[in-house]
From TrEMBL:
The lineage of its organism: Bacteria, Pseudomonadati, Myxococcota, Polyangia, Polyangiales. Residues 264-335 form the J domain. It comes from the Bacteria. This is J domain-containing protein. Pfam families: DnaJ, DUF4388.
Amino acid sequence: MLGPGDAPRALARAVGSRASGSLAITTEEGARRIVLHEGDLVTAGSSVPEETLLAFLVGRGDLEREVAARLAGKLPASGRHAGAALIAHGHLGQDDLWPVLRAHAEWVIGHVVLVEAGTCDLEAEPPGRLKAEPNVFGGATGAEVFVETIRRVIAPEVALRRLGGPGARLDDGARRNLLGECALRREEEELVRTARGRSVGELVNAAEPENASVLYALVCLEVLDVLIPPSITEAPPPPVEDPLDEEAIRQRVRARLALVEDGDYFSILGIPRDATNYEIRRAYLALRKAFEPSTLLTAATVDLLDDVRLVIEVLDEAYEILREPHRRERYRRAIEAGPP
């Protein structure tokens, strides 16, 4: 039986053990299968009606919903025969066949790693049409496809939690030899090579926050091992409210409210106007965490709740505008422009 986080590990074990056959993940929705050959991923298919090739193309905006409804039941759920039929109908270009089949397989695999309840079996041979499907991943290794799937699908905060939190420390894993097959970016590989003995939080803070997802993928593959810090057996004493802390909280909220009233999104996030995407995201996440009402406010400062909610609302709006380079540049020009 699968629980939360088990599906990625099951797929990683199949890749790391050089398995061949099909990994079948069955849930109440249906069965999803990933075909493997000596640890490399070949293709993937799903019996879930919402995950057919037609549904995938509709979701991407490449096929009209009415056309998909007309073709439903007449085409295989996935694979080259489904793609060939779409080409014959004029809904898919010949040159688009293999990129589309790969993208659809990646999409199905993404659904697999998100499964939190169901069963898992490694079948010696893929059933039916899947057995004859060609490799849609070209020269990509199974480890490479797995890492990219986790990077795309598992949110950094989820990955961080599954790693045991920022305090968990890393060590070399039993399948360290797979590192060269993961096709990591140069800076990521360098980070991994120096990971032994360091904490997850240290590594994530030293680079992009998204690296938590990469570290999680490598732990699933056993390229790295994670050492969970020992649990605290004695409960800490209850905190004593400090009037100085209360005043500090009020000052912090007042200061941020003043920036909110000023209305400059760069100032609200505390960043320069030439800040990078990474700096913008880091500043936003830090402020969002700092002004989380459940951790910021106490019984003595609960009267600040409406003010804090306003701060959060404006932080979200500022990040929404500044996260996208073109919108950020338009905003910068507008606030710097003088009167005609």
